[in-house]
Amino acid sequence: MDASAANSDSVIAGDPTTSLGDGDIMLRLRRATAMAHARVEACVGLDNPDISQARYRDVMIAFYRLHLVLEPRLDALFGEFEDPLLDWPGRHKLGSLIQDLHALGVTPDTLTALPAAAVPAMDDVAAGFGALYVTEGATLGGQLIARYLGARADLAGAYSYFTPYGDQVGRRWRDLRMVLRRWVGTDEARAEAVVTAALATFLAFEAALH
């Protein structure tokens, strides 16, 4: 995860929903999660172009364990969500992680034997949006990570998790922001619930990466 990208609300130029004031849900999320986000970045260490293949594999296994639990829960929450801009399940990452782990030599039997990660309960849409803020922000920040990894012959074919949308990553981040802003609106309870869920998701990532 790259804080300069994933935790910024002004990465995509020309977004008409940028800078909506202190009450804006995206600004609140960015401010409230900044410290947790920084801790996760420190755990990941993917900004190091010399990261060992073994450490990289461990990080990707942690991401796999997290998404293995997160995505079915998000399926249940967003399977019939009314706003098409959300495009769920088009934001699934589990398939990319499996592909990357296979490229790193992790066998299907090994994946099956992995314990599931502990992630927060998700019993409402607010919790789902909090989790999506984290996972989609990681995809946005992953563009820089992919450039580092692309120079590594030993990691060839093992970083599709960071490039799942091709050249559409900016548009899809903008779409998520628009959906989230529309859903939260001026509802303070919804805003607080989304922020709480995002923090809990960051904590789950931090725990899995240690």
Description:
The protein has 210 residues and is mostly helical. It has one domain (3-209): Up-down Bundle (Heme Oxygenase, Chain A), CATH 1.20.910.10. The protein is built from eight helices and no strands. Helix 3 runs antiparallel to helix 8 and helix 6 (125-149) runs antiparallel to helix 7 (169-184). The longest helix has 26 residues, at 53-78. It is globular and about 50 Å long. The chain starts with a helix and ends with a helix. Residues 2-19 have low confidence and may be disordered.
Q: What's this entry about, in short?
A:
InterPro entries: Haem_Oase-like, Haem_Oase-like_multi-hlx. The chain has eight helices and no strands.
- End-to-end Cα distance: 15 Å
Question: In CATH terms, what is the architecture?
Answer: Up-down Bundle
Write down the CATH class: Mainly Alpha
Shape: globular
Looking at this structure, what is the CATH superfamily? Heme oxygenase-like
Rg is 16 Å
Number of helices: 8
What is CATH's topology name?
Heme Oxygenase, Chain A
The tally of structural domains comes to: 1
Name the quaternary structure. Answer: single chain
InterPro entries: Haem_Oase-like (IPR016053), Haem_Oase-like_multi-hlx (IPR016084)
GO biological process, one term: heme oxidation
Pfam family, one: Heme_oxygenase
Organism: Parafrankia irregularis
Tag the structure with descriptive keywords.
210 residues, mainly alpha, 8 helices, 61% helix, Haem_Oase-like, heme oxygenase (decyclizing) activity
Could you outline the blueprint of secondary structure elements for this entry?
Blueprint: H1 3-6, H2 25-44, H3 53-78, H4 94-103, H5 108-113, H6 125-149, H7 169-184, H8 188-209
